[in-house]
Amino acid sequence: MLNQKANRFLTLLFVMTPIIASAEVIHEEKSLYRNIEVKESGNRRCLVFAVKKGDRNQTCMDLRDPRKVVFPYARMTFAGLLANPNPESILVIGLGGGTIPTALSELYPNTTIDVVEIDRAVVAVAKKYFNYVDSGQSNVHVVDARVFIKRAGIRAIQYDLIILDAFTGDYIPEHLMTVEFVAETASLLSERGVLVANTFSTSALYDHESVTYNTVFPEFINFKMPNTGNRVIIASRNELPTPKIMHERAQQLEAQLSNYGVDMRIFLPFLKRDRDWHEDVRPLTDQFSPANLLRGS
Amino acid sequence: MQKMLSIKLLIVTLAFISGFIIMGVELLGGRILSPYFGSSIYVWGSIITVFMMSLSVGYLIGGKLSLYHANLSRYGLFFIFAAITLAPTILFGNDILDTVFVHFEDPRYGSLLASALIFFLPTAILGMISPYSVRLLIETAQHSGHVAGRLYFVSTLGSATGTLATSFYLVLYFEVNQILTTMLAVLLVAGSCAIMANKYVESESE
Fold this sequence. Notes:
heterodimer, A: 297 residues, alpha/beta, 8-stranded mixed beta sheet, globular, B: 206 residues, mainly alpha, Growth Hormone, Chain: A, 6 helices, elongated
């Protein structure tokens, strides 16, 4: 049963690329940071950050079922709820099409959500094409994530859940992948706060990044699904829940999350805690952060 | 004759080094500022503005100073002073950034002020080196354009090399402050060489 579902997700992943290639472009603009396109084909509308090497889909929406979270990596992000199923304040770094903040604001109507997005054009596109609503419950701040987090630290603001989803895949903001940045982010976590970071699972960067997070968090959940190329780090200021508790929570959240196409029970076997990286590499710091060069090597 | 040639070679080498360090520091400037102000286009705008401003002021002052008893010893002092003014960047860079960050909410003017505080002095002093080098190299007015052209060639080539070396390789192996400290040491050595060369020239001419 589990395998069958996992297979369905994989098939979806492979099938997606050719569909999007023949898509119709319904919006195109050059923002301060990148080329943005919104493409549509059949029932699928995608936000694309166009680069020469090949388009990178940021967010896709199923037009028949807009709530459904289409991308596997975005679904993986929800695993953070297994570590804290009732966040009362949430910070999301990186808006994209707004899928994650929108889902979270529906799931937790009494929870305030701060969203940080560096690119004003992405905010406009998320609102116009992806049903993102700056509702008051969910507020988007157009600012560099590092600046926002440093200021929030000075003001002693705390969050129960922080989702870091700032890596578009083509260029890594190196100042968002250092020990200092992770420590500043960790300092915003409340007593039961959980940090979910969507990062890379390939190249030399994987080792460096793992060691970087490990420097701040002695233990974290290292969540990789087969064939996604993504890795989600789930870390907490306190002890992480036992597999048994996470299993219970996955069942409790099942009904609510099924509307979004997220089934956390299939995640459970992949929520690993062992260190499968080379621990002898240097952590990335503000002084030493060649993330983009490491990724190429 | 042989001696004149080696002095010229020294000056040209030092101009190359100053060009290398100016751009190396400028590139590291992005690294130094990004933890506080991000890496947006306006942060680079601030850094480039400050470097261009300080270089322009440096050219002006360097040119003016070359009018009075220009010699290798004073030339060497420029390098020493550049090294001394680079030290606060390494030692207090983060304190300066912390202070500016707390007082300026707007990251544009925050990054502009921070880069001015951290980079203005060393860059202006490094800027003084180019016109002063021209003065030391020139023998006749007729050749002044030729000499100036060659010097720009060498120092700008130094800048290109500094940019490439820093962004492609140095940041891959070293920490920002290790690179800056090395540059500081190179400036001290360069300055000392010029001062010693001056003593040598003077003792010969006696």
